[in-house]
Amino acid sequence: MTRNLTFIRGLAVAGAAGLLLTGCGGNEPPVPGENGTNNPDGGDSSGSSSYGVMAEWDGCEALDDVQAVQDFMGVTDWGTNGIMSSDIPGGLDGEAFNCGGAANLAVYLMENEVTGDKEIPGTANIDVGVAPWESDSEAAENFQERVDQLKEAIETGGTEYSNVQEGEIEGDWDGSYYYAGASNTGFNADAIAYKGDLVLYVFIDYTTDPAVQDGADPVYPFTDESIVDWMLNDYMPTTYSDLLAKKESGL
Questions:
Q1: Of 24, 85, 87, nearest in space to 51 by CA
Q2: Which of 136, 202, 203, 233 is the most exposed place for a label (fewest CB within 10 A)?
Q3: Shortest CA distance to 190 belongs to which of 151, 145, 238?
Q4: Would you say the C-alpha torsion 68, 187, 206, 202 has a positive or negative sign?
Q5: What's the CA gap between 156 and 183, in Å, rounded?
Q6: Rounded to whole angstroms, how far apart are CA atoms 251 and 244?
Q7: Cα 69–Cα 131–Cα 206 angle in degrees, nearest 5
Q8: Domain extents for the chain?
Q9: Alpha helices, DSSP H only, in the chain?
Q10: pLDDT tens figures, 77-110
């Protein structure tokens, strides 16, 4: 029993201005246990698979309001729309539950005796999503589809990146891919990984530190280098472990 990829949100190529929507499918997620089928490589459809357990999870509840990301980046608020949460198939990504949105970061006070002082906040788009599947093979196929779409979007998106980092993520993943780089307006970091029957992705982009743009000391509590290292080597494996623990407890 398979599901087709519906949408992924690729913030790396959309930048701080919006979202990338790619790849249209049309199938609704399957109902666990439908037709009494079993999956040989990822648990059966009766509920032991990740999809069987997580199919109705709310994104922000399952992902703890992405609080770790908020703390690391110094998010001050979520703007007028607030933090956004979706379940399956309620969000832009019909296969995943998500948490995130457009966030405000640290504020830089630009002093000007002529025009007056001006507060300039940094901004970021944050999207963390989890696509649970009924089998390892479905997760592997979906992971590859998402990576292929992301690579294509980066190649055709029209944005040039510098200081690019790209490759596999170190650690105990069955498959992984990340892409990070600086644009003219900020920095983007995208990562997709899977293990077993669970696909996890993190898309983060943010504007250049407004203080640095003005030649002053930075106001962000992180650097481009530190956020990539933290996202890949700390946040993603910790989030995956937390999800497994919640799966065992039924959230």
A1: 87
A2: 233
A3: 151
A4: negative
A5: 15
A6: 10
A7: 30
A8: 8-249
A9: 11-14, 50-54, 59-62, 67-73, 136-156, 210-213, 224-230, 236-249
A10: 999 999 999 999 988 899 999 999 999 999 998 8
